[in-house]
Design a protein that fits this description.
By secondary structure, this protein is mostly helical. The chain has one domain. The protein is 71% helix and 0% strand. It is built from eight helices and no strands. α2 runs antiparallel to α4 and α4 packs antiparallel against α7. The chain is elongated and about 75 Å long.
Length: 204
């Protein structure tokens, strides 16, 4: 029994927003790891295993991303079948946006599974797989921004509270991605400089 005034579509939309928030937090923690951020040396000056927290936010994002479409099975109009959720190409409403949402879910599952197997895969292969999270996030944000929560194919209301939340998370993720790219370029440049210095010292 849902609270009075809360529909199945409302509940699905709120769970979807929770997925957006979880993936945003997960990627923010990933950036802190990339920068070798230490919560002991810096704020809040306490030992905190944010690597484990990063993992759990990833599993949370996957769980709520699965729950988000499953809730639609209880909606009467339009009615969704299990096939419409697993393969939403012919779903009863907004098939393109729903298909992109399904792609985001499958990529999240791929990232979660390969992260669980990271020791067996080896760091280099696992890291290559792990960058799929950016494609998953892109698909997730597309789905969240362009899907009508009421499933009536209405134009996007960019000033809607839910859309503003997604837009804010999207801008934060873009900033995170640019910072990470900048960090990767600095590391590559530093490695090349060390290689040149080593080669020069060896030739002398």
């Amino acid at each position: 029994m849902l609270p009075m005034g809360l529909t199945v579509l409302d509940l699905s939309a709120y769970v979807g927003l929770a997925a957006v928030g979880a993936i945003t937090l997960n990627m923010l923690l990933g950036l802190l790891m990339a920068f070798r951020y230490s919560p002991y040396r810096s704020w809040p000056h306490h030992r905190f295993n944010y690597f484990r927290f990063h993992n759990w936010t990833g599993y949370l994002a996957l769980a709520v991303s699965i729950l988000h479409p499953v809730i639609l099975l209880f909606n009467k109009n339009p009615h969704f079948r299990i096939l419409d959720l697993v393969y939403p190409v012919h779903s009863p409403s907004q098939p393109l946006d729903n298909t992109i949402g399904a792609i985001a879910l499958y990529l999240l599952a791929f990232v979660a599974i390969t992260s669980y197997m990271r020791i067996r895969l080896g760091r280099h292969l696992w890291k290559s797989f792990h960058f799929s999270i950016y494609f998953a996030a892109a698909a997730l944000f597309w789905h969240s921004l362009f899907t009508d929560p009421a499933l009536k194919n209405a134009p996007v209301d960019w000033s809607d509270g839910g859309k503003l939340f997604v837009e804010s998370c999207f801008l934060l993720i873009v900033a995170i991605g640019l910072l990470r790219l900048r960090l990767a370029r600095r590391k590559a440049l530093h490695a090349r400089q060390i290689a040149r210095q080593t080669a020069s010292a060896t030739s002398q």
